[in-house]
Amino acid sequence: MLQFDGLRPARLKVGIISAGRVGTALGVALERADHVVVACSAISDTSLRLARDRLPDTPILPVADVAHSAELLLLAVPDTELAALASGLAATSAVRAGTIVAHTSGTNGISVLAPLAGHGCVPLALHPAMTFTGSDEDITRLPDTCFGITAADEVGYAIAQALVLEIGGEPFRVREEARMLYHAALAHAGNHIVAVLADALEALRSACDGEFFGDLPIGLAERILGPLARAALENTLRHGQDALTGPVARGDAAAVAGHLAALAKLDPQLAQAYRSNALRTAQRAHAPDEIFEVLAG
């Protein structure tokens, strides 16, 4: 069982199942905190490359061998594979009693690890509230990342909090029954903002075409939208809904109608996405009826 040195967990032998973007980034962070990644599993070409690049001294072994060698077993598999993996590991008795088993899924709490908890393991959910791309930025961002943690008891929470603090993150508790809502909030912000900005960049590139610029300068659309998008994000984080600006917030129905018409000529699906987002903006801004009438049309 894990022993504590003050508030710091003892140095742990770490095993990582699925050495992908998340698993290897956390592996590097844990090694920088003086833990030792003793083994990892990797199947895809991407995982093999990341394991060799980020954890060059760590042997790549079969899943059962990784599990058996670990005091802290990190399950960094996709959400859809987690339940089957936990059941499979429990059935083979590959994980020793007393092993800390932590997964990185956002949607799952610790109930998915029940088969392993039944064998005397310590179940933890350690979800970094961050997007991972496989670049070096994944690792540099971790010290400023918040982690949604769920555990079975106060001992588990103490372990989870200590591990997160060691790598420079900020732990916060998420109730077992609230994991799906928690992850939905993150996905709404982290994923949908990508789609919104990609749509905006597409429209802007079409607006700033060769008729005015000749060959459109590389990165111009990004340079135009970057400061605006960053300011909007920072203003929202500081001021909440008061950061809303633009035609919907000020009740300019003519401008909204013009936007919809222009976007529909470019891409009807893009216009529909604008309509949906504008409707939610109008609801939040308590916009006048004229805005809702335009959006309903």
Automatic annotation (TrEMBL):
Domain (Putative oxidoreductase/dehydrogenase Rossmann-like): give its ranges. 6-128
Where's the DUF2520 domain?
A: 145-280
Q: Which Pfam families match?
A: DUF2520, Rossmann-like
UniProt organism field: Mycobacterium botniense
From which domain of life does this come? Bacteria
* Protein name according to UniProt: Oxidoreductase
Check the record and name the InterPro entries matching this protein.
6-PGluconate_DH-like_C_sf, DUF2520, NAD(P)-bd_dom_sf, OxRdtase/DH_put_Rossmann_dom, TM1727-like_C_sf
Instruction: Name the coiled-coil region(s).
Output: none
- Known SUPFAM superfamilies for this protein? 6-phosphogluconate dehydrogenase C-terminal domain-like (SSF48179), NAD(P)-binding Rossmann-fold domains (SSF51735)
